[in-house]
Design goal:
Blueprint (H helix, E strand, L loop, with lengths): L3 H13 L3 H14 L4 E7 L5 E5 L3 H9 L7 H8 L4 E2 L8 H12 L5 E8 L5 E8 L3 H29 L13 H11 L4 H8 L3 H15 L4 H10 L6
Length: 239
């Protein structure tokens, strides 16, 4: 466990940082202090660009982008709908694509264990703070039990400071969804197929598609999954 005095000094240093690069340097020190594998912070802003920092090797970052792993990464998928920290061991790695991604990530030094903390700020701002560690199950249980609260606090401090840096960040104008658009996205967020969602709403799949596209347009989302994620982040639907 991080000593309280050390943690407080780290939080004060984050608040005094003048840019994300300084925070990255602080998190590198934090990584070494706790013998972590890597530390990452990623914020998807209102224009869907990504900012943040990571200690991950460039080879894996390039590989991740080239393979478009964000589409199948169980951590990304889980964090979009989670409000509590995500322990990677609780995720489903059994599918063929997820298993292949997991094998590739381990080969690139991602770490056997991981802990991702979704952070939601004002007006739908969404970020994820992640740490990884190479250790076995019992050692990870002990680490998570001792450090989870401190990691959550750290994640929120990093996110709050990142918002301070982004002087051009303003709340996105609220674009209310219609009742049917809300119902359609809510059913998809709960894991229903389009066919099941249409059946539940007693409408055709074609009509359902109209509602989904309407919601996607209002939310300025790239696709249906993105629309669902934005609606959850903005508090328009709950799962």
């Amino acid at each position: 466990m991080v000593k309280r005095q050390t943690l407080n000094a780290m939080l004060e240093a984050i608040e005094a940082a003048s840019n994300l690069e300084e925070i990255r340097e602080l998190m590198t020190r934090f990584r070494d202090l706790l013998d972590l594998g890597h530390v990452s912070y990623r914020w998807v802003d209102r224009s869907d660009s990504i900012c943040g920092f990571t200690t991950l090797p460039l080879a894996w970052q390039d590989r991740y982008i080239a393979m478009r792993y964000h589409r199948i990464d169980p951590v990304v998928i889980a964090c979009y709908t989670a409000f509590h920290p995500v322990d990677w061991r609780d995720l489903d790695w059994s599918t063929r694509l997820a298993a292949a991604f997991r094998k590739d990530s381990l080969a690139h030094g991602m770490g056997a264990q991981g802990y991702s903390i979704p952070v939601r700020g004002p007006a739908g701002q969404y970020a994820v703070f992640t740490i990884t560690k190479n250790c076995d199950g019992p050692a990870w249980d002990k680490f998570a039990r001792k450090n989870s609260r401190d990691l959550i606090l750290l994640a929120h401090y990093v996110n709050r400071r990142a918002l301070d840096f982004e002087m051009n960040y303003y709340p996105a104008p609220e674009q209310p969804l219609s009742m049917r658009e809300n119902e359609a996205l809510s059913l998809l967020a709960e894991g229903h197929s389009r066919a099941r969602a249409a059946e539940a709403l007693e409408i055709s799949e074609h009509t359902l598609r109209v509602y989904i596209e309407g919601a996607r347009h209002k939310l300025q989302a790239q696709n249906t999954t993105h629309a669902v994620a934005k609606a959850i982040a903005l508090g328009l639907i709950a799962v």
